[in-house]
Write a structure and sequence with these properties.
The chain is mainly alpha-helical. The protein folds into two domains: 74 residues, no CATH class; 36 residues, no CATH class. α3 packs across α4. It starts with 5 loop residues before the first helix and ends with a helix.
């Protein structure tokens, strides 16, 4: 029976992830913070209870998910594309921790946005050099 070499599997996973993210293996190996755990810690702090107590209270109060009022894939796409959510959805967000967590996870972190914008600047800059465009115009903010 063949044994798994978890170390080699992990190294390949990190290598593939680094390639996919166009970053170093050191950066790709960093743990990704849990959005759920961070939200749970904030809730526990807000309520003045332990994280475990907040988790238990959430598991008792969680209704069946998704409900008919939960965010649909189309509404999630609208949110990601910076379109406004309708009043019913906004009201629902006040009551549904699962939908709030979904929107929070769909929102890119500031760090990821900085990396993405830098990549765009590099690619646009390289393209502009090829087209002999005026570089300052490319990087000026659009009003």
């Amino acid at each position: 029976m063949a044994k798994f070499n978890f170390e080699k599997i992990w190294e390949k996973f990190i290598s593939d992830r680094a390639h996919r993210l166009s970053t170093s293996e050191k950066f790709a190996a960093k743990p990704v913070p849990s959005v759920y755990l961070n939200a749970l810690k904030k809730k526990a702090e807000r309520l003045g209870v332990s994280v475990d107590a907040a988790r238990r209270s959430e598991s008792r109060s969680t209704d069946a998910y998704p409900t008919p009022n939960c965010i649909s894939p189309a509404e999630l796409t609208d949110f990601i594309n910076s379109e406004e959510l309708d009043e019913i959805t906004i009201h629902h967000l006040g009551e549904c921790a699962a939908c709030c967590a979904l929107l929070e996870m769909a929102t890119p972190s500031e760090e990821i946005l900085k990396v993405l914008l830098e990549e765009v600047r590099i690619r646009v800059g390289a393209h502009a050099v090829n087209l002999e465009a005026d570089m300052p115009q490319i990087f000026e903010p659009v009003p």
